[in-house]
Amino acid sequence: MLAVVPPPVTVRVPAKVNLHLAVGDARSDGFHELSTVFQALSLTDEVTVGVADTPGVEVHGEGASSVPTGPSNLAWRAVRALAEHVGRDPDEPKVRVVIRKAIPVAGGMAGGSANAAAALVGLAALWRLELGRDDLAAIAMRLGSDVPFVLHGGTALGTGRGERLVPVLSRHSFHWVLAFDRRGLSTAQVYQELDRLRADGDPPRLGSVEPMLEALASGDPRQLALLLGNDLQAAAVSLRPGLRRTLRAGVSAGALAGAVSGSGPTCAFLCPDHDSAVEVATELSGAGVCRTVRVAHGPVPGARVIGGDDSPRPAPPEVHA
Ligand SMILES: C[C@@](CO)(OP(=O)(O)O)[C@H](O)COP(=O)(O)OP(=O)(O)OC[C@H]1O[C@@H](n2ccc(N)nc2=O)[C@H](O)[C@@H]1O
Ligand SMILES: Nc1ncnc2c1ncn2[C@@H]1O[C@H](COP(=O)(O)OP(=O)(O)O)[C@@H](O)[C@H]1O
């Protein structure tokens, strides 16, 4: 009898922005203790997982040429971790992973983490595993600090190294403009640069997260804009001084506020509504301060199966600089 080959599974997974990123001192394991508010955005990657004779990863789209396709690919590491978890041969998982990227690589928007989260959800569906979200979350946190959040989605408070999550009430949608830089930044180097800046002086640190949680519950983008903050921003700007100009240009173009997203170099600008976000994106793309501009909204759900290969794939609105 012929074995039935299950159809490939496609998963859509969001990028994230940190609305509040308070970084504590380095711990003995090298990670920094965080208090961060994540929001999942409508800028998404798609990851298809299918049974294959030639296992491996292929990557298409935004920044594809700088993403490894070997064993260090985060989606492939997720496939191996899940295979091991359920007792299948992690060296021969017999699956092919196709990644279509829209999230900038090494952009501070958790693109690699998103691909890992999507691969977990896709493979669990392909293999019809009886695993709950908690099982997947336990594997996710071993793959990277941001992986649990992009699996979860929405808006959440992250503590520990960012992997311990509590959902946060967020009323209404918020509208964002994202400015992609020409090259990425290494997350580890940005944390190191913050340690260096703190050893040399005492750069200001973010205060309590409570006012941010209140602003999210109110749903008022103007209140939220006053509170956007990121302790890694000074380090990202120190490594990439041109970001100062990008941040100024977004606010001059009409954004309520702007901040570096995570470890950067992507800059995220909060706008009052969708129409103003399109206007800000258009003006920013003409200012010559970044490579590409995108419009997005949040919060959106975490990694979700979207069906077979022929299901519709809305492209994110795009403005090229
Ligand atoms: C800065 C943040 C903010 O959400 O996001 P990105 O800007 O990378 O998207 C995260 O903390 C990044 O999370 P993620 O990209 O998953 O990092 P990991 O792979 O876990 O760690 C990469 C490196 O970053 C540093 N790191 C990461 C998390 C943390 N709490 N403290 C750290 O010092 C460590 O040097 C670690 O070796
Ligand atoms: N599937 C993947 N997608 C993107 N980057 C990946 C992937 N797998 C491994 N990487 C590597 O992970 C690093 C961090 O990428 P990414 O997660 O996009 O950035 P960030 O941590 O700034 O959000 C990059 O140097 C990239 O080469």
Automatic annotation (TrEMBL):
GO terms for molecular function: 4-(cytidine 5'-diphospho)-2-C-methyl-D-erythritol kinase activity; ATP binding. Residues 212-287 form the GHMP kinase C-terminal domain. The keyword Signal does not apply. Its EC number is 2.7.1.148. It is an enzyme of class 2 (transferase). It comes from Tamaricihabitans halophyticus. NCBIfam families: ispE, PRK03188.1. It comes from the Bacteria. The keyword Nucleotide-binding applies. Residues 73-154 form the GHMP kinase N-terminal domain. This is 4-diphosphocytidyl-2-C-methyl-D-erythritol kinase. Belongs to the GHMP kinase family. IspE subfamily. Keywords: ATP-binding, Isoprene biosynthesis, Kinase, Nucleotide-binding, Transferase. ATP binds at P104, V105, A106, G107, G108, M109, A110, G111, G112, S113, A114. Transmembrane segments: none annotated. One of its GO terms (biological process) is isopentenyl diphosphate biosynthetic process, methylerythritol 4-phosphate pathway.
